[in-house]
Structure formats: structure tokens, C-alpha cells
Amino acid sequence: MSEAALSDPGPVQNAMDAPMFEAAAFSLSEQEVELCALARDLGQSKFAGRAELWDKDAVFPTDNYADLKDAGLLGICIPEKYGGLGAGFRAYCLTAAEMGRYCGSTALTWNMHVCSSLWTGLLADDLAMSEAQRAEHERRRAIHYGRIVREGAVYSQPFSEGSAAAAGFQPFSTAATRVDGGYRVDGKKIFASLAGHADYYGVLCTLQHEGREPSMRDTAYLAVPATADGIQVVGDWDPVGMRGTVSRTLLFDGVFVDEDAELMPQGVYFLAASSWPHMFLTLSPTYLGIAQAAYDFTITYLRGEMPGTPPVKRRMYPTKQIAVAEMRIKLENAKSLWFQAVSEACCKPSADQVMRAYATNYTVMETANDLCRLAIRTCGGQSMFKSLPLERLYRDSRCGALMLPWTAELCMDRIGRSALYHPGETDD
Ligand SMILES: Cc1cc2nc3c(=O)[nH]c(=O)nc-3n(C[C@H](O)[C@H](O)[C@H](O)COP(=O)(O)OP(=O)(O)OC[C@H]3O[C@@H](n4cnc5c(N)ncnc54)[C@H](O)[C@@H]3O)c2cc1C
Known about the structure:
Layout: H1 3-7, H2 30-57, H3 62-70, H4 89-100, H5 104-126, H6 131-151, E1 155-156, E2 175-179, E3 182-192, E4 200-207, E5 219-225, E6 231-234, E7 248-258, H7 268-275, H8 284-302, H9 318-344, H10 351-379, H11 390-397, H12 408-420
Parallel strand pairs: 1-4, 2-4
Antiparallel strand pairs: 2-3, 3-7, 4-5, 6-7
Helix pairs in contact: 2-4, 4-5, 4-8, 5-8, 8-9, 8-10, 8-11, 9-10, 10-11, 10-12
The structure holds flavin-adenine dinucleotide.
């Protein structure tokens, strides 16, 4: 190879990436195909190039949110009658997976935002409510959806507190106390992605009742305006991966919110969390996208077609071919299982479906990191430079298995128990 060829990075590849899920093979709806193409287009043309910026200094991807707003994607799961795109659960997951290929921090924080529309939208529609509750919910969600659709408001979802609450084993310590015209919120949330950047924090807290022990059934879901008095964003944010999520700590000290801050009527969040477990799968699309990106990177790199690197082919070595085959098999396994799980997501799924959802989350989170590991080992030292996305993918991928309530450990724990014990069964 000549000197000139070694130093010439070659032509930049501008062809549109292939979809993660072939429309015909997976019988995707027209809406799913269109949303995935939109996410891929935005991701490839804008988010991929900026991802390094957010990662380098751990700053929030504000520019990407302007693009998400312009594309209507902030309202992806808001029903059409409220001005949103009306995407269903699977359509959202497919779109988020495509986005995850290009910027993990954007896809993950976008997920926190979209969750507020999912809980209040298609999940709430599946749940039993009294007529009065339903009417009030309709009125209130119209307010929240209007802010998102018309004003581009961004909602976050801080629930972690560093206790067993985020794992779903005890009530949240953050307290909501009834006061004239609304609630007073006091408490602390850690790992609050979008801290200092969201317009509303969708806080899970426990409604206090005099003379009654705090209970998970009394979980309140309140949209606290980021500008309310008594809120502080504190602490550093300098983690190994997902650095653009800016998941700093939020402190709430006597914060007043009015009654319309309630995102779901009393008791309905608890019902939704227990009836719609697939909701906790919504962190997985980001990481499935990262797994796809690690695989795609490896193919491009070994073919000597990686923009910004010399056109050196490495594909002719049998060890590389075997490693790529191993990666493809892992990716196909993860994608097939994931597609089945997000396709069958529903209210009150069977025990088998729930175990499959745990298995899916575990598989996606672990596979993403495994594929990034294999990609680095297979591509070699030059693939790890910060000028290329692989080392960021590797660091971002490490975070998936740690996300509560379905960490990799807790998924294993839940599968083992569900397999060996019928509901309510003990060894006593
Ligand atoms: C990049 C990033 C972004 C995040 N964004 C958000 C966000 O927007 N909102 C939000 O609410 N949270 C967010 N989180 C927090 C995340 O969901 C977890 O709450 C957090 O990672 C838990 O860390 P910890 O050290 O407090 O875990 P710990 O609670 O100390 O748990 C450590 C490990 O022990 C295991 N474990 C925990 N509880 C139990 C139990 N009861 N039984 C058995 N095993 C258990 C789990 O496997 C867990 O990984 C984010 C985390 C990261 C890394």
C-alpha cells in the first residue's frame, strides 16, 4: 500500500444505513417504517456527528432536542387527538432503537421524556378508572400534552433514590403532602437524567396520609416544573458512559405544585406499574441500537471503509470472520427476542410473557456490552481512538445492565423465582 493511500481517509460514506428490522421480514406497519426512517435520518445526518461533543464534556445534547422537536418526535407517543404522532409501544421501541445507533445519551434521555406520554397515554387507556377519574385524567393530560406538542416542553423521569424503591421493593421516600390547591414535594432523586435541562421533572413520590404507613399503592406521579421554588440540581456528573444524560441529583425542599401537576390519578401509577411490566423494557431499545452500531462498526472497519481511517482491509483473516460470525449470532438472538417481547407487550401479560420480558432486557443489556467488547478485540488498537465512535459505544453500553428496576441481576433474580415458585408460594 502506498504512503498516499495510508494517509488518505477515503470518501466519506453518505449512503443511508439499512434499517435494523427489515419492513417485510418483520411485517412492520407503515407508521413503524416511517418513524424508523425518520430516526435513522436524524441520527445519521445530525446526531452521530455531534455525539462526541456531548460525551467529551458530559454536556446535554440540547441541539438534538431542537431537532427532535422540529421532527415532532417529542410527541411520538401522544395520541393523535392531542396533536401527537400516536405511535404504539412497538413503534416507539423500534424508533428508539434506531436512534440508539447514533447517540446513546440522546436515545436514553428521549426515552425518559417519552415515558411520561406512555404512562399517561396508552397505559392509562388500558387501566380501569372511575368515570370521574377518567374525565379528570383526560383534562390533565391535555394540559401536559399541549405543553409538549405546542411548546416543545421536555419531561424527565427521576425515580431513583438510592434505596430499594427504584427496584420496586419499597415506597419512595420523596414525599407528596396535600396542601391547599395542590401538593408539597420534599425529597431527593439521584441519577436524574436531564437534570437542569428538562422543563418538568416527572417525579414519583409517596402521598402521605396521616396515621397510615407509607405504601407503594400511594405512589403519586407529579410533573414538577423545573423552575419551581425549592428545587436544586446538585453534585457532579462525570461518569464512564452515557455522559450526555447529565443525570445529576435533584433536591426538592417544600416545592409546591398545583393539582394539575398530577400525571395520573391517585393509585393509578401503582396499577400501571403492576399491570404493564413491559413498560420497564423501554430502556432496552437504546442499548439494542448500540449493539447494532458495534456490529456495523466492525463490518465497516474490517472492510477498510471507516471514514477517517486509512483504507486498510482486515476482513481476510479467518479469526476476524469467526469473530464477526459470533457477533452476528449474538445480535440476531438479541434482536429476535427483543422484537417478540416488544410485539407482545400488553396489559396483564401472562407469566411466560413477563419472564420473556425479563430475559429480553437481560439479553439486550448484556449483549450490547459484549458486542462492543468483541468489536474492540476484533478491530484492534486503532479502533479505540476517540476520533471513532467505538470506544464511546463501549462505555455507554456498560450502563445498560445497571438501570433499575430491571438491572441484569434483578432480571436473573426475577426469572429464577418466577420459574421455581407459583405466585404466593413459599417453602414454609
Ligand atoms: C446513565 C444513567 C442514567 C440514569 N438515568 C436515570 C433516570 O433518568 N431516572 C432514574 O430514576 N434513574 C436513572 N438512573 C439510575 C438507575 O436506574 C439506577 O437507579 C442506578 O443505576 C442504581 O445505582 P445504585 O448504585 O444506587 O444501585 P443500588 O440500588 O445500590 O444497587 C446496586 C445493584 O444491586 C442490585 N440490587 C438493587 N436492589 C436490589 C434488591 N432489592 N435485591 C437484589 N439486588 C438488588 C442491582 O443489580 C443493582 O444494580 C440512571 C443510571 C445511569 C447509569
